[in-house]
Amino acid sequence: MSFLIGENMTGGYGGADILHDCTIGVEKGEIAVVVGPNGAGKSTAMKAVFGMLNIHTGRVMMDGEDITSLSPQARVQKGMGFVPQTSNVFATMSVEENLEMGAFIREDDIKDTMEQVFELFPILKEKRKQPAGELSGGQRQQVAVGRALMTQPKVLMLDEPTAGVSPIVMDELFDRIIEIAKTGIAILMVEQNAKQALNIADKGYVLVQGKNRYTDTGEALMADPEVRKAFLGG
Amino acid sequence: MTDFLNAIVLLLNFLVIPGIAYGCQLALGALGVTLIYGILRFSNFAHGETMAFGTMFTILATWFLQSNGISLGPIPTALLAMPIGILAAILLVLGTDKLVYKFYRKQKSKPVIYLIASLGVMFFYNGLIRFIIGPDDRIFTDGSRFIITAREFKEMTGLDQGMAFKMTQGITIVVTIICVAALFWFLNRTRTGKSMRAYSDNEDLALLSGINPDRVVMIAWVLTAVLATVAGTLYGLDKSFKPFTYLQILLPIFAAAIVGGIGNPVGAILGGFFIALSEVAVTFAYKQVIGYLVPESWAPEGLVQLLSTDYKFAVSFTILVIVLLVKPTGLMKGQSI
Description:
The complex is a heterodimer.
Chain A: E1 4-11, E2 19-26, E3 31-35, H1 42-50, E4 55-62, E5 65-66, H2 72-78, E6 80-83, H3 95-102, H4 111-120, H5 122-126, H6 137-149, E7 155-159, H7 167-182, E8 186-190, H8 194-200, E9 203-208, E10 211-216, H9 218-223, H10 225-231
Parallel strand pairs in A: 3-8, 3-9, 6-7, 7-8
Antiparallel strand pairs in A: 1-2, 1-4, 4-5, 9-10
Chain B: H1 2-40, H2 47-67, H3 78-107, H4 111-133, E1 146-148, H5 150-157, E2 165-166, H6 167-189, H7 191-201, H8 203-208, H9 213-238, H10 243-248, H11 250-260, H12 265-283, H13 287-293, H14 312-326
Antiparallel strand pairs in B: 1-2
Helix pairs in contact in B: 1-6, 1-9, 1-11, 1-12, 1-13, 2-3, 2-4, 2-9, 3-4, 3-9, 6-7, 6-9, 7-9, 11-12, 11-14, 12-14
């Protein structure tokens, strides 16, 4: 059993079901990537794991505990960090304040964690007093990831962290994500840039129409000619 | 040279000082409107009546203190009574939130529905206030009237024109500075204050970060009640307390909040002064000032008043319309309406 797993999830936003018996999971210290064509339910699957929509069948387990009925906020308390795809920073607040707000649920001293985030993303230390809304797209993503790390989560969930950033910035972000995973955090992310994402993935899920189509290690998926042909552009 | 100084003093006395005092009162009022807009995301039409309600209890407490012979010497007793008014206003808005707005929050209603609800709340407060204290004019200012009288000023400077500085104007300015400084310290330096800014900035992300929305909403109401009572009491001290004027003042207050950029506290303050000074400047009769500045034969015959004071609300209305047309986010980049 994986450290975090959404098993056999079926459900949607209230209307028709978007996910059909979909399973995604991730181990501690590993990176799991969810890829698939537009409208495959990648983000929906991620939101389901985080509790932002109701699944009527299936369950979500973390560290052997059933958390299916918990609210997103309660899941944050349990050690999940979530970086939404859009409006994922407090644009009018400074970088430092963004990180402080990320750690809002913590009662203890957050200085060390903030230092760790600044070590991971040195540019943020430089711009700590600047409003997050004035930063470039890549820097803003760094703030968003940093904010989620402030709770010292066991699992970090990223919804298309490289959406709208340049290829160079994307490579850098992926490097950082690998670094984060090395500290023992489980990383579950949804990606549009399937090739690059599967390159760094320990595990890959290819979703089509809310169902699992292929599930394997990142390497194996990259090597699978069918997957390459259908989803990775040859 | 003396003529020039006289003209300046005249302007200070009748335009700048009253304008600044009025600007302070509007700024405090607009801050309350902007806070509610930032956190609860609707335009609170009951804000003027909240001001009147807090002021009413301040007046009742003032009368009680006065009848017991308690006073602050030269400073108005109302300042001592203000905590009672603030407490009453806090209870009122929290009660209203529980009975009215909470329902719409659960329904996730659109802002316009809140707005209409707040209109109903306004009429209810309106009746409540008239029921308790009546519709009449109440003067509750006591203590000394002036910090500097016009005569003292004339004797001091030897100018023809006197500059009076009323006690209520001085109090207005000092209290406003204290309130604004305290508010900004709270919003920018404390964890709770920052969490309110975060909630106002990005509600979903604030929820993800574990910020408790009920607490944020409650604090927003408490701050609004405090600001409303202070603004209302200062306005009442400076002019007089008449429930109807608190309904009228809603327009300049909203104009101030929107001109400054609604949801932006700095903008609310700037907007308050902008509206107040424009209102006073447009309705001021410049005849005497020009008389000092130009040769006698050029002196104008009319009052040189752009607009009669009866139409002063037209000024804020005009500014409001222009800003909404030209720059809907306001001067300081607030949210657009």
